[in-house]
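Posting this for the archive.
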Amino acid sequence: MYIPKLHKIWICQNQDGGIYMYPKMANRHGLIAGATGTGKTVTLKVLAEAFSEMGVPVFLADIKGDVSGMLLPGQDSEGFKKRLKTKLGLEMPWKFQGYPIRFWDVYGKMGHPVRTTISDMGPDLIARLLELNDTQTGVLNIVFRYADANGLLLLDFKDLRAMVKYCGDNAAELKTEYGNVSAVTIGAIQRALLRLEDQGANTFFGEPALDIKDWFQTAPDGRGIINMLYCCELFQNPLLYSTFLLWMLSELYETLPEAGDLDKPKMVFFFDEAHLIFKDAPRSLLDKVEQIVRLIRSKGVGIYFITQLPADIPDSVLSQLGNKLQHALRAYTPKDQKALKTAAQSFRANPAINCEKALSELGTGEVLVSLLDNEGIPSMVQRAWVMPPRSLLDVCPDETRFKEMKASPLAEKYTETVDRESAYEILTHKVEEQIKAEEEAKERAEEEKRAAFEAKLKEKEEAARLKEEEKARKEAEREAARQEREANKRQPKTIVDKVKDQAINNITRTAGNALARGILGSFKKLF
């Protein structure tokens, strides 16, 4: 884009001449607002082209797909010449040109894949993405804390699912150190993960993760590369869209060093449909967004919010936006009229302009504009026409897009996914080891039980055998005695045997009598 010798960015033109933005004030952030169809996208393109010309890398979201035409030069037409002359009062020939574009897509279809890891996004943004309540967010923080403490990388969705399940299964162990982890809360988080995975959000998490430094590059001719995120599909999930952009802001803030006041920004970030950031966001998250917007300026990054109404943005953030371009607003309802009045009052007053009336009269491509001067003071509001873009006001053909993607030096870096060992693999292995150890312990217990039973059985068998042997022995002795008696009865006694028996009987009787006398102590005669 043409840059005047005063090194300003030519943004608008009115009857008094050009309206310029000072590059060193570009990182004081800005607002592009207006109703649908009033020209916000064209204004975004004009600013992006200007920053690229200055060698400043740009990030912007292509929600409708029509911004992709910036890759190609614009086309002249009678209508364009008429607008250039009648609206802008310019007679000079207009130089059309394309700009260095790098296409990105969370789903990896219409651009290089954009991924981050679960650990990098952190529990706060993950909780917002899962739409968790305070209690569930607290448990999710425990999950992350335990993973960090034990060196368990949370890279993708399966890692987070495995970690949540593990914490639920081991809630009793975690309770003392981290707090209560109820089964009900774990179940709610698991259901939220499944719901988000069904929406395709799991493709956003994994490796190789985006290196934010890859967005701070310039083309060989010195122009800043415009990093364009294809959002036609992503925008169907507004929560994922806004959470992704919040993550990127956070990454920029955490990654970049302090830079102080620069002659021009290091990077400019355009946040289209900005109201989605703040919709239903908890107070803690809003505070962090406000902090990032306030402090990221010192790191050389300019943020430009694009939305329909200035009221879509909290006052604490709106007050940080020094450069404002307000397109027409339509006031059909009392609420719209109130918003129009509020928007009109947000400008530094100009006695020559009735802002409230002008906002309802502005044509397409016409704005109320107030920019910071060289001292950082907002200029009085002016009514003007936005300069036309130099690139194509249409969609880039898919063939051209894919050719550009293939030629990109980052294609090889981000195309193939990497699945290294992380929480899922470690916990799966740990669980498998636990199961194996439990099975082995069970087998040992069963073996010991079986051995004890067999030993006891053998003992019983041995006792029974001994008993049977004893019984058999006694039976044999009785049988032997019986046989002896039977044998004695069958054989007649000889003379010698009879004499012997008589002698034995006499001795026995005499011994018995003696025994009786000895015991009773009486004097008895022998018989």
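Confidence is low (pLDDT under 50) at residues 1-6, 517-527. The radius of gyration is 47 Å.
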